Structures are given as C-alpha cells and as structure tokens.
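Researcher: Sequence recovery benchmark, item below. Answer with residues only.
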C-alpha cells in the first residue's frame, strides 16, 4: 500500500466534510442533521444556488449534487475547488485531520504481527502464512523478481516437511532479503 494511498484513506476517515463545507461558506442545517443525518445544501462546486441542489450525507462524509450529477468526497471537493491534483488535495487536507497520520509499510505490519507472538507461541501454519505474505510483498515490490519462484518453492517444501529448523532459516533468508534493499 503506497504512502499516498494510506494518506488518502486517512483523509477519507478523519477529515470532516461538514467542517470542510463550512470553511467554503456552505452552511449545514443542524435540525436536518440531528433528525436525518443529512442536510440540503447549495452546491459549492457550480456556485451558490438558492434551491439547494445538493445533499450532505454525514454517514458517508460526502455530498451529492443533482445538478452536477456527482458524489463528492472531501478530496474531490478540494480537487474541484482548488484545481489540485489528487496528491495535492490529499496533502492539503491531511493537516485538517483530527487524528495524526502515521505511514505504515506492509512489511512492518507483517513483522509486527509475527513479533506479537513469540516463535514458541506461533503455530507453524501462522508462520508459514506470514512468510508467504512477506514473499508476495517482496515479489510485488520488485525486490527479487528472479529468485521469487525459488522462495515460494522453499516455502512449499518447508510447509510440507513441517521442519521448524528449516522454517527458521527461511525466515532469516526472507528478512535478509528485505534488509538488502
């Protein structure tokens, strides 16, 4: 998962469309929000209109404009209003998040999962599954395209033999491959 994708997901989850609309001068009706979790609003994209052609949905953190025939997320709104690219809009919105953003790479996540359990507590199958996931990530990210098939064959062989010593050696090999990049 790329850092930009992680940032975009973070913005979608933690930047309030209601607050963003308010910053663009689009008022939400509190009575409608309380009763229905929605609010009729003028569309901030095609100009302020008196007949309120858009509807804000609190549950999806978005609004739909019947005139534009489009659903807008916070990222879409900033891209349209400010003329930003996707990446620029995400980076513009990130500081408005209620929760600090921390990027996590997949390998760190997989290592953390494995380290949660000591090797003695981890089942052989869990360790094989995590090792397979690490190898797939390594292959997907171009670490060792030529040796990837050999690694997967080794995982299969270790899995079939159920040999813990071989599994530990293979884990060390995969961890060394990750560190070599």
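Model:
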């Amino acid at each position: 998962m790329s850092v930009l994708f992680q940032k975009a997901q973070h913005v979608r989850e933690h930047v309030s469309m209601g607050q963003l609309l308010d910053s663009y001068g689009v008022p939400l009706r509190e009575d409608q929000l309380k009763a229905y979790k929605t609010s009729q609003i003028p569309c901030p994209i095609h100009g302020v209109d008196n007949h309120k052609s858009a509807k804000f949905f609190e549950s999806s953190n978005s609004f739909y404009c019947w005139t534009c025939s489009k659903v807008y997320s916070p990222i879409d709104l900033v891209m349209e209003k400010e003329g930003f690219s996707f990446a620029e809009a995400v980076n513009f919105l990130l500081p408005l998040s209620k929760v600090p953003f921390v990027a996590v790479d997949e390998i760190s996540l997989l290592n953390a999962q494995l380290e949660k359990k000591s090797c003695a507590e981890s089942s052989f199958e869990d360790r094989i599954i995590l090792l397979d996931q690490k190898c797939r990530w390594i292959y997907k990210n171009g670490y060792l395209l030529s040796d990837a098939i050999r690694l997967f064959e080794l995982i299969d062989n270790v899995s079939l033999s159920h040999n813990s010593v071989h599994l530990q050696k293979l884990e060390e090999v995969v961890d060394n491959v990750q560190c070599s990049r």
